[in-house]
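Notes from hallway chat w/ T.B., transcribed later so I don't forget. T.B. wanted the structure written out for a chain they're using in a teaching module, and asked if we could keep both sequence and structure tokens in one place. Agreed to drop them here.
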Amino acid sequence: MKRMGDIINADERVRVGDHRYIRAAENLATKVLFLDVVRTPQHYVHRRPYMDPSQIPGLPSDVKFLGEYEAMLLGKLLHPVYPVLCIEGPAGSGKSTTLAYLLDLVRRLQSASANGRTPAELLIARLDFRQQGHGEFGPGQIDAPDSRRAVDELIKDICRELSARSREHIQPAEEFDSFWNGLIAKYARHEDPDIGPVVRRILDEDPRLHRNSTAAPLTPAQLEHRRGLMDAIRAQDTRWYLRYLILFWRYWIESRHDGRRDKAFVVLDNLDSLSPHLQRLVLDLIMRAAHQDGPTFVIALRPETRMRQGLADTLIDVITQEGPRPFDVIADRLRRFTDQPQHYADPTLGLTRDQYQLITDFITRVYTQITSNDTRFADFSAAAAGRSIRLGLLLAQGLFLTSIADMTSSDTTQHFLVRSCVRQGQPQFRASVRSPIENVYNISGITETARLLLKPRLLRYMEQHDNRCALSVLRSTFVLFGYEEDWIKRALNDLLRHECQMIRSDGYDVFRENWGDEQEMLYLTEKGKAYVRYLMHDTDYIQEVMLDCQVDEARWPNQVAYGHLSDKLKLLRLFLRDLAKADVGEVESFVRRLRVAKYHELFGTRLISLDTVQRVYRSVGRIITTSAHRHPHQKTTYRSILDDYTSLVRQMENENKRLLGAEPEPTEEFTLEVT
């Protein structure tokens, strides 16, 4: 086996002179696309439609726009109904950015409500689990004892933040005197069932506290004794300490703000960076410890986290993240740059003045193209990024990583821009664990020909079965198809990776030595659906990712030219030929062992490569027709290429009828007259 891109002539791969790209352009791309000031009103991209912010009393005057979604979520924060507010959305969809922006608005609104006398007091604890050092608990599988340890570590971090924030406002003398005495008195009067587990544990350690008078102030020795009791229990039971701190925050809300819950928030940001299994355990603990009149917990979660949630939703308000499209954010970032490029100029970026001007002129043309009536780039970004703004911005970095020759060319099309985003500044696409593009025709660590269609089959199968499937069913089905379990596991891990998440799991994010549990469900993401319906059949995408696929050296020439359109189309047809051959061989084996009816039941009545071949044929037909009109001296060459594509399409239509007994609707044939 040999990597397909390695058979291209060396001269075609060298990037020298004007054929190189400007490496320091990546620094500028990061500065333009990944703003570090998105929390300010002038940089936040709102979800359309907009509301008139002047209609909302108290909003700061610099808030010129407010999307309907943001206005709704702001109302949830200012008038909390439940103790837990969950914002659900896939990784990278802007949950953290939206939360940061709205909490900043809440702070400014509260300050304004103080009428300029003293800033209104807010108590906000914020933990970013992406930065808390819990990466070891994110991907992969954790056995039961390790799960307990992981959750304990997470709860300790939450408790540390709750403790630090609350003790900025309440001194120890008040905590161990007024707060403790109030808890014990309420417990004695059976007033509040929520405090029972906390107070009982304290009284178990020192029953004398039940009889202590609450009238006289505590002595320093008594205060120290109570502090020692709390420290001892905290060291033994982190869950008790979490309940204790939530009651402590409730005391602050009641004593300082007459029970107004819009004054206290606990934000668990990027909790969705953990595996759903751990997210679910943490969420369960929070829901059991939270109080209706305590602080509002604001949690960002992935949708699959709650799929197995056992508690009723009486304590939780769930909002689906509805931020802007990735394309809207990309266009906004590019507009800001092209409007005021001088604001981004910085000698530390490593660009000369001429290089900076070249990139500026090119990105200005790019912005004009992608915001025109041609939606090619917008369609690609929607398919490749799904709802992930972060992924869309990573893809858009490829716009800056373009060769000098291409930046100066007047023939740049949106097809070229798409391919630049796929390549990400490389002469050829090369898959990596950090790549924002998934190569569905290759599996990490597998070189056998059978890998070509395993991931497309997995995605298509899930789409045909309500976009979800139990892991156990998926394993048993594809083993029947003839795939080895190790191939299936590796393919699923590729599709699950966070950088380009095409499927999601409600259990674990990576399968290693074992397969997780039998209840685990896999869900097809919007991005996964877009790959099935769009990218898997997209000519620009296939032409780039196919170069990183392994091919059988015996069936391929040692070297091929790749400098002209005709060369690229010939190589694409050879790759489609290999896809078709692999498909026919696998389906022949399947129906021989399990009959056609079983294939129909599991995979439908079409060969998976047929859709790709037909749709690429239509795209190639349009390309050849246009190119032949522009270059009539090449008509004979283009006619030969078109005939080869037509032959492949007809062959696959016939194979579909032969193997599956279903005659597909024939593709309309392109013709090219040669005079």
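Follow-up for T.B.: Confidence is low (pLDDT under 50) at residues 114-119, 134-144. Might be a good example for the class.
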